[in-house]
Design brief:
This protein is mainly alpha-helical. The chain has two domains: 73 residues, no CATH class; 126 residues, no CATH class. The chain is built from six helices and six strands. The strands form three sheets. It has a two-stranded antiparallel ribbon with strand order 1-2. It has a two-stranded parallel ribbon with strand order 3-6. A two-stranded antiparallel ribbon has the order 4-5. A hairpin with a 5-residue loop joins β4 and β5. α5 runs antiparallel to α6. The C terminus is likely disordered.
Amino acid sequence: MWSVKWRSADGDRVKRRLGHRAWVRSGPDGRWVTRSGRPRDGELTEFQARRLVPQFVADAERLFAAARTRAKRSSLPTKPTFRELAHAWLAHLETVEDAKPSTLIDYRVMLKEPDVPYQRGTGRTLGRIMRPLGDLAAADVTREDIDALLTELDKQPISRRTVNKHRATLHAIFNFSRFPRPARPLGRRAEPRDRYAQAPPGGSGASRGLHGRAD
């Protein structure tokens, strides 16, 4: 079996099998010499093996570099995702602030994962917040991310009050975190006058925008 030895980019000595048997035999002096005739399938002469070495080493070095990159990334502290932040916020509401069960239910509905089958019927959850934001690092969520989400909600057959409840929930989640809140998003949606008196779950503070005031 042909083997290849070289020193890798990080200075380590490397030895790898080429993956082909050597088309050689032992000579009178004990040295390996090329057999006569055409090599069988899976066997290479020294000349043929040497032609494969540059590409073989280059491919191996790419794999080593990718492994080093993965190891470096795994050693770095990972940023919590928006999903993790939202779940921590819900736990805080339940265990520390002792939020009402109806309030918790309302928030959990808004923060459900997408495409989860309903317990009854054939429908699936929409995951209006978690679908676009759930996998993002919470600290990396930008104004554009929030604006895009709210703009998409504006297009859906839901009331402006529902859009504002989602907006207020996002405000509360980022206000709970230590991360800087995304810059001012699109303004609070105007609701019909006869509905201003209805405070969304979480009290009057939940009706504020992402910067803690009505726009």
